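Please fill in the sequence for the structure shown.

STRUCTURE ENCODING:
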């Protein structure tokens, strides 16, 4: 056997996730493993919960990371809140709404789909109409930041509509948390899940979740058992809950949690608002460069997600060739289109540690180089300059300019 240690190449990850992990997080992962009931570890778990409350802007006691990726956070919300026969209105404006539908069905619920346009925010009036037409619905679910298209929906308004119709709101914040405003308490979100590998500068594999009191009540008053043993919050809380006596449920991914702890400490050091402003500012610089080059965004300006930039692939340019050249010649990963957008768009992420001035300029230089060599119809040699003008004029900071007011 000639299999030896695996040494991955050093890439720059500017796709839809995973995104670049901070060296501080990678270093934290390599610290000594503790027993998962060791008092020192349990103390760190409590800090992770506090730090997640900070990131989610919530006082919800039931705020913790699920020991699995974002998809498991999604599933945790649905298996605990949806009982057989429950009607759930699901807004779909990209790939991830379809997964919510699958989850509802597998829980024995009845999905009612609100089909929106891909590349646009969820239309609040469509949700309102669907809830009017389905007065027996119990839950409304939507994706705050649709990573498949780069569109951002108005979570506060959608939750308000759900509540007006006496529904709980489940929100997917996998790509928004840490990168753009997510305010769980202010927006009265009932159940929310996220992921560590998008805007938190952390490795993939954990899913922060938070549940409010109305959601907890529904879980406590279930008539049927949660069909997933692993994700049943009644059981998980024996381990992650606040009580002094922690009962073994599963072995926490100890080192992965060191990584999340470090990532959240970094977020607090930077300040949540400053992280939002950094994502907004770097997006504007990248946008200036991409547009100067002649590439166009697929999402209307007011609905764009700063951390996920979806642009149309120029006529006659082969998607896979470009991405392969970026990877081999620039060690740079950008994302391909998903679903109906496959082959038509690139998705350029500026998430977490990857949202930096350095990466904006690297990505524009790399695209300029590769597209020029392929004789693509772009404006050559202007993108970096256009981005620099935005970066230099930005001393006022996006915080002051109200760019992140939402
Ligand atoms: C990435 C993503 C997920 C799934 O997260 P995984 O960690 O890949 O399981 C769910 N929803 C959205 C919006 C995402 O971007």
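FILLED IN BY: designer on duty
SEQUENCE:
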């Amino acid at each position: 056997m000639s299999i030896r240690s695996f040494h991955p190449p050093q890439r720059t990850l500017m796709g839809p996730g995973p995104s670049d992990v901070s060296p501080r997080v990678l270093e934290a992962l390599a610290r000594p493993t503790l027993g998962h009931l060791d008092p020192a570890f349990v103390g760190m778990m409590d800090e992770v919960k506090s730090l997640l409350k900070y990131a989610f802007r919530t006082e919800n006691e039931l705020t913790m990371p699920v020991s699995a990726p974002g998809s498991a956070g999604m599933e945790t919300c649905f298996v605990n809140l949806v009982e057989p026969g429950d009607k759930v209105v699901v807004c779909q404006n990209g790939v991830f709404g379809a997964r919510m539908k699958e989850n509802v069905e597998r829980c024995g619920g009845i999905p009612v789909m609100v089909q929106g346009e891909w590349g646009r925010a969820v239309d609040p009036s469509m949700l309102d109409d669907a809830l009017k037409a389905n007065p027996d619905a119990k839950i409304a679910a939507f994706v705050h930041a649709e990573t498949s298209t780069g569109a951002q929906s108005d979570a506060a308004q959608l939750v308000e509509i759900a509540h007006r119709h006496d529904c709980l709101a489940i929100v997917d914040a996998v790509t928004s948390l840490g990168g753009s405003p997510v305010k769980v308490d202010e927006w009265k979100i009932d159940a929310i899940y996220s992921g560590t590998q998008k805007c938190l500068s952390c490795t993939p594999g954990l899913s922060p979740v938070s549940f409010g009191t109305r959601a907890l009540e529904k879980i406590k008053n279930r008539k049927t058992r949660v069909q997933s043993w692993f994700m049943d919050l009644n059981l998980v809380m024996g381990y992650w809950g606040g009580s002094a006596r922690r009962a073994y449920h599963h072995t926490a991914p100890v080192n992965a949690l060191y990584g999340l702890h470090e990532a959240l400490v970094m977020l607090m050091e930077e300040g949540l608002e400053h992280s939002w402003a950094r994502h907004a500012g770097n997006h504007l610089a990248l946008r200036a460069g991409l547009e100067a080059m002649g590439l166009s965004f697929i999402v209307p300006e007011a609905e764009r997600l700063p951390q996920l930039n979806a642009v149309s692939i120029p006529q006659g340019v082969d998607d896979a060739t470009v991405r392969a050249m970026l990877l081999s010649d620039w060690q740079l990963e950008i994302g391909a289109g998903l679903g109906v957008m496959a082959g038509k768009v690139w998705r350029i992420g500026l998430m977490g540690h990857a949202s930096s001035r350095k990466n904006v300029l690297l990505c524009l230089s790399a695209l300029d180089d590769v597209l020029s060599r392929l004789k693509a119809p772009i404006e050559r040699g202007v993108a970096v300059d256009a981005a620099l003008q935005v970066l230099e004029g930005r001393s006022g900071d996006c915080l002051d300019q109200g760019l992140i007011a939402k």
